[in-house]
Every structure is written in structure tokens, then in C-alpha cells.
Amino acid sequence: MPGFKADFLWGGAVAAHQLEGGWQEGGKGVSVADVMTAGAHGIPREITDGVLPGKNYPNHDAIDFYHRYKEDIKLFAEMGFKCFRTSIAWTRIFPKGDELEPNEAGLQFYDDLFDECLKYNIEPVITLSHFEMPYYLVTEYGGWRNRKLIDFFVRFAKTVFTRYKGKVKYWMTFNEINNQANYHEDFAPFTNSGLKYKEGEDREPVMYQAAHYELVASALAVEAGHAINPDFQIGCMIAMCPVYPLTCNPDDMMMSVSAMHRRYWFTDVHVRGYYPRHLLNYFARKGFNLDITDEDLQILKRGCVDYIGFSYYMSFATKATADNPQLDYDETKSLVKNPYVKASDWGWQIDPVGLRYSLNYFYDLYQLPLFIVENGFGAIDQKESDGSVNDQYRIEYMQNHLREMKKAVVEDGVDLMGYTPWGCIDLVSAGTGEMKKRYGFIYVDKDNEGNGTLERSRKKSFWWYQQTIKSNGENL
Ligand code: P53
């Protein structure tokens, strides 16, 4: 039976702000991640007005990858990584975001980091904006509610495309751009788009406006990137949580279609270069008057992505209710528990079949190469007295997902480029700011309060993943 391609990109994924630390080193500016405190499951992270004394900001030091990347990449190489997904912290390159000239120390850091990867034949896979835009752009410009952000982002993109055109081939523009479909909570609008809502403001059109500017900026970046190096592969990055109908009641099925429309129209624009009709009709019904120019619509057509990068952790479920005849989707109210699957300690529903479903969903719709750029199990790990971590539950989670991924490739014929599990080394959780929600194959000695030696050690899953890569998935 055929398996994965010979050049399948096995690797791991992280994001700059969740592991680098060094938040004030090398001329780095303050990012949106630097003003978020630590929360927990059910306790949202606080977004403070700047960096305040006496608060715990876990991203400031993170796991000190900024100083330890050589040691960490060596461990990735030992596992056999073919690629390593990380992001470039925008604030290392343009500390405030609106400068005309980049910060050389920041550029040099990523030169060194990419050289270290290439030394082991590990391909860097780079996200341009992963929840870490300059905080200055929030306070001075209102974040992505401001059209000026397009120019700032494109300048940043062109700068790094040009600088690393011989070192990086695989890129993504905006991490999980569709998280902000959940605009009722503060986290996603802030981390995606630097949006701080005003009291009583109608949040929804602001989100659509910000997302539109980002999609235009993404398209301009794709166009510029292809001109800088025609070999570049530039993708989008979508948070894929398929929304199932709770039952086969036709109304539940239509509610699921509506929910999928609200969460995944972003992919349509990235891939096809135009807005789906259902969304334009929705804007009209809601009376949203958005700044979308004819020139923008031309740009979207010119900057279609080369592949679809996506994260997959869980599936959702929804049902129709009598008080919602228009099937409007509100992520804080419309989701129900799926009785057929279990959930993690953080309430994330574990659904390996949903990964096969997601791969088929994307491939049926778009026929573009797919890249699973995040997947994994956030769990509490117990370090034994001999220093080992027996994370069999993580191995099981991944094995079950990889088996479904393999069926999608071998049986369903999906074109899959690679697989980079999230947090291949323990790092700061995006959603909660915790250290104890661990994803890694590599354990990092640090706790929620910031105590620990930062020492790295191999978990049981390290050896399992090493074997998986070595056999190109034959051992699954
Ligand atoms: P944490 C929500 C739903 C799906 C993925 O998340 C998400 C989120 C945001 O929390 O984020 C992605 O750390 C994101 C990573 C993040 C990872 O999933 O909350 O791209 O930055 O760390 C896992 O457990």
C-alpha cells in the first residue's frame, strides 16, 4: 500500500512569542503577546494597558529559545525533523511597526536561526504573523481596524522575503486568521488583529473590516513573495475545527452549514481570491458597510495562496434552536457538547476522525496541497523521579490522528505536504498563558509561576516520533 511521499515534511511547530523570550533583546519592540498575563482553563488572560508592574507576563521569558535555539534544534534534528515551523516576531524586525527601516539585530537573529536549521537539512516553515503584532500599532493605529496596517505588514513581508529568499521556501501569512470569527471574546480579536473593542461597540463589522484588510495584505504579500522568488510556496493558515450537526435533523445540518460559512469563508478568499456570495448577502442583511474597494477586489484575485496550512486539534458540534431562525452562528452560544467524543483537561474535544474529515473537506473544495501545521495534545505531564516523562496519552492521541491522516492520503487521495505537530518542545500556551498545558516531545523544566531550570529532556513520545519519521509513517 502506498504511504506518504518520500519528501513528506515531518517536523514540529512553534511560534516566536511562545518560546523565544528575550522580549527586550536585540532591539525588539513590545508585541501584543507581551501585554497578556497568564490565565488558566476558564480564566481568560488579561490584556493590560501596556506592561504593568507586578503582573505575570509569561511570554516575556517563555522558554528562552532566543538563547538556547542551538541546543533545541539539535534535539529536533535528533528526532529526524525535515522541517521546523516557527514565526518571525514582527517586533524584532520593525519594533513599533511603522518604521521605514528594519532592525538589523532582529534580522540577524533569524539568519542565525535559519542557518542552524539548514545545517541539519531542516527546512524552515515560516509564519509572518503569529499572534505577535507590534503593540504600538494597537495604541497608535487601532490595530487592523486601520487600513494603514496593510502597508506596514507588506513592508515587513517584503523585508523578510528578500532577506531570507535563499533560506526559506515555505511561508504562511496570518496564523489562524479565522479565530476571530469568535469576536464575542477578547482573546482572538486581540491576538489576530490587535483589536480592542470599545464599550458597547458593534464588534462584528469591526472584525470583518480587520479581516478584510488582512486578506488584502496577505494577497499583496503573496504577490510580492512570488516576484522575489518564484519558488516560494506561500500558504494561508486556518484554525480547522469542523462544526458538526448535533443530529441528522435537517435544521441541525443547516445550522452546521451556516457555522462552517462563518468560520471558513476566510479560506475561500485566500484560495479563490473573492468573497463567497453567502457572506456578501450576510453583510447586506446585517447592514454592514465595509471599506472594500474595487482595487482591493483586484488585489485579492492576484494574491491567491499556493497551499492551505491548517491546525487541527478538535471538532465542534452545533444545533438549531427556535430562537435563531436565521441560523446565525455565535461561537460563545451555538456550540454543544458532542456525546460521541471525549475531551482534554482543557475541554478540547478529541476527534481523530475529524482530521480525516477536515482533510477531505479542504481537498474536495479547493484541490490545493494541504499542510497540517499544528496538531497535538495539551496535557499535564508528570516528571518521574528518574527524570523520565511517560506521556503515553500523547503518543495515543497522535497515533490515532496520524492513522486517520494516513487514510486521507492513501485511501482518499488527498495531496498532503507535511505534518508539524504543535509545541514540539514545551512552550507557553497561547490560550491560557500556562506552562502546564504541555504539547512537547521535549520537556522543559519551568512551571506556571516561572520557576524552573529551563533544562530540556526527552519524553517517551520523543522516541515514538523519531521512529514515526524514520519509517515515514509505516509504523502507524
Ligand atoms: P493553546 C484556539 C483553538 C485552536 C487553536 O493552543 C488555537 C486556539 C487559541 O488558543 O491556537 C493555536 O496554546 C495556535 C497556537 C496555540 C495552539 O493552537 O491555547 O496557533 O499558537 O498555542 C494551542 O493550547
TrEMBL record:
Active site residues of this protein: E374
Query: Keyword Hydrolase, does the record have it?
Result: yes
Cite a single Pfam family from the UniProt record.
Glyco_hydro_1
InterPro entries listed in its UniProt record: GH, GH_1_N_CS, Glyco_hydro_1, Glyco_hydro_1_AS
One GO term under biological process is: carbohydrate catabolic process
Q: Which UniProt keywords apply?
A: Glycosidase, Hydrolase
Q: Which GO terms describe its molecular function?
A: beta-glucosidase activity
**GO cellular component term, pick one:** cytosol
The cross-references to SUPFAM superfamilies, in alphabetical order and at most eight, read:
(Trans)glycosidases
PANTHER family per UniProt: ARYL-PHOSPHO-BETA-D-GLUCOSIDASE BGLA, GLYCOSYL HYDROLASE
Query: Hey, which family's this protein in?
Result: Belongs to the glycosyl hydrolase 1 family.
Query: Any idea what this protein is called?
Result: 6-phospho-beta-glucosidase
Query: Which source organism does the UniProt entry give?
Result: Kluyvera intermedia
Q: What is the lineage of its organism?
A: Bacteria, Pseudomonadati, Pseudomonadota, Gammaproteobacteria, Enterobacterales
